[in-house]
Design goal:
single chain; globular
């Protein structure tokens, strides 16, 4: 499972500029994933490549951010650290192969496109711009799931079919609706929608509660990545 490629494709940046083996991604500052350098190799001139990347992001009013996953050479990480870049958001990739299909305890609405209230819930929980998030989501086919009450999504999630693999993204529950099993119903509905397939998701290393939840649903750590931020 080429997780670096899958993650990049499932949350596609609005603007992509190749730089040797790297890709400069820009999406108006919404999420580090879509506003960072995807590092997948070692440039012939590492120092010059970092300079070019820094100028690119400075031109958009953003700090330099580099995403370093399984395909990132250790030399790049060491170079950025020596240059003063902080290690931020170490993140685990968790995989269920195949994903177990459990029953959802709540009625889950699933659509092929994010509707405004879905985006509002995700953006409210994550503190993001819903308009830009909607544009990013529209970059690839996906399913959008929600448990609703009175037409208001309380828990949401996004499933991206990628061949025989399902990417799980945008899992978010409004604070007032937590500890009711709503996220479990959303996750299970998305897995069921995909049929027999492997599934993966990403979760920050420090989010112990989410990691325990996903392990209980059959997901195990498969890899990791982190960011270097200027």
């Amino acid at each position: 499972m080429d997780v670096d490629r899958l993650i990049d494709e499932a949350w596609p940046a609005l603007d992509r500029v190749p730089l040797g083996p790297w890709t400069l991604r820009h999406s108006l500052g919404v999420t580090k994933r879509a506003n960072s350098v995807l590092v997948t190799g070692l440039p012939a001139d590492l120092s010059r490549a970092v300079d070019v990347a820094e100028k690119f992001y400075a031109g958009h009013g953003l700090p330099g951010v580099f995403s370093l996953g399984t395909d990132a050479p250790a030399e790049v990480d060491s170079f950025l650290e020596a240059r003063g870049y902080r290690l931020v958001d170490p993140t685990l990739v968790m995989v269920a192969a195949p994903a177990p299909v459990g029953s959802a305890a709540h009625e889950v609405r699933i659509e092929d496109h994010p509707w405004p209230a879905w985006l509002d819930t995700w953006a409210a929980v994550e503190g993001r711009d819903p308009e830009v998030a909607g544009r990013i989501c529209a970059g690839v086919p996906a399913w959008y799931a929600a448990v609703e009450e009175d037409g208001v999504p309380l828990a949401v999630g996004r499933g991206v079919p990628q061949g025989d693999t399902l990417g799980i993204y945008c899992m978010a529950t409004r604070p007032s609706a937590r500890r009711r099993g709503l996220a479990r119903s959303v996750l299970r509905a998305l897995v069921r929608q995909a049929g027999p397939a492997s599934a993966y998701l990403v979760v920050t290393e420090g989010n112990g509660a989410a990691r325990s939840f996903y392990r209980a649903e059959g997901f195990e750590q498969h890899g990791a990545y982190h960011y270097r931020v200027a």
